Amino acid sequence: MKRSTSKSSRQSPRETLSLTIAELSPGGDGVxxxxxxxxxxxVFVPGVALGEEIRAEVDFSSRPARGRLLEVVSQxxxxxxxxxxxxxxxGGCDWMHVTPEAxxxxxxxxxxxxxxxxxxQAEVKSHPxxxxxxxxxxxxxxxxxxxxKVVVGMYGRRSHDPVPVDTCVVLDPVLDxxxxxxxxxLDGAKGYGEAQLSLxxxxxxxxxxxxxxxxxxxxxxxxxxxxxxxRAVAGGPLAGARIFDGNVTIPATIGDPTPWIDGxxxxxxxxxxxxxxxxxxxxxxxxxxxAAELSFELSPNPEGAVLExxxxxxxxxxxxxxxxxxxxxESDRSSCEAARANLEARGLSARVxxxxxxxxxxxxxTKLVVIDxxxxxxxxxxxxxxxxxxxxxxxVSCDPPxxxxxxxxLAEGGYELRAIETFxxxxxxxxxxxxxxxxHPLKSKVR
Length: 447
Ligand SMILES: C[S@@+](CC[C@H](N)C(=O)[O-])C[C@H]1O[C@@H](n2cnc3c(N)ncnc32)[C@H](O)[C@@H]1O
Hints:
Layout: E1 14-20, E2 23-24, E3 30-36, E4 39-45, E5 53-59, E6 65-74, H1 100-114, E7 124-127, E8 138-146, E9 149-155, E10 162-163, H2 173-185, E11 190-199, E12 211-220, H3 223-235, E13 238-245, E14 252-255, E15 260-262, E16 268-270, H4 281-298, E17 305-309, H5 317-320, E18 326-330, H6 333-345, E19 351-354, E20 366-371, H7 379-387, E21 392-397, H8 400-412, E22 416-423, E23 433-439
Helix pairs in contact: 7-8
């Protein structure tokens, strides 16, 4: 690894330094190692690419030290012109300046870096994205309505103020149209809120797709806002809206606010309003099919019971239930309802349980456990699986650091890693989806 050079050996709280970017971190920042006064300090700098020589203003008062890019002295071949004009202001995508190929490599290298020593020799396989722009099936934007002006946007790069942008290039064009219209619909509102936009129509065959809106508002929403939303549902880009005005628990509903995506099996998949959905349809199809394929490969007995934890609206369940007896656990009640509806629409059966996966016991006949937790990971589940092993575990993760923590627990419990694969579900950002497939040699027939 190439070392950074310092213009000064003294570490005052803020210094201008020449640095070399040695790696990209899971949070997206570049990392340089700075050695001065006998101490090695990691310096995290946003907006850089691997191998770049830069000048940065570095703040040593925090650990790790934080740098602000002043100049790229020697540019990395991984750097590209950002495909978005708003990248300097908007904080939505942190790797717009990195080529898609380099994003893929960096994600694989991040995932490799979090593997516990027992799995350190594993080869990380990467699945590229077919669409790196216009792919997002949902977005959350912040809204501020003050002094007669409504501002809608992502948080800015260095602030918690929404930054209005003309076009969001990663968003599905249907959602981008609705995002652009939002400030007009909210004209006259006072206060602040969050709006989630998702895809609404079940399938292109049933007509043009439209967006659904979930708005959570603190302040005042005048009747005109509701009238405009009704018009947008009657003939505009919205299929439906749910509005939580103040602390109400039952929202005002206009039209059909149910989000849908194309499921990984090619049929429409109903989602819970305001609930979770994977960020891209194509990426999800690749990810979910591969997770199911690995599940069946590592747990080949068709009679083997499957426990699926963090099941959401049944995105993976509908693939697993085609071939296995599945119990699916999910804590969000409306996601459970959507999962049951998705299974029924396909003539499939599985037991969908509305419960906390982290405290859910693993039933004795379970042969395979499939988990897809939120960013915080599944530490308690990993501990339970280590204490009472099952034949195979397929772990779908959106956060490499918590995946690394949980894989270390599974390694300690005697599991072997059979596959670790990354999926470009969030192109232009440092986020990555990973599937890890493990077997327990004492419990598995797959050797
Ligand atoms: C990353 S999503 C995965 C959903 C689904 N597998 C999919 O592919 O769309 C995580 C899901 O876990 C659910 N969840 C979060 N904490 C939970 C818990 N403690 N117990 C059960 N489900 C939980 C969330 O509601 C969300 O639906």
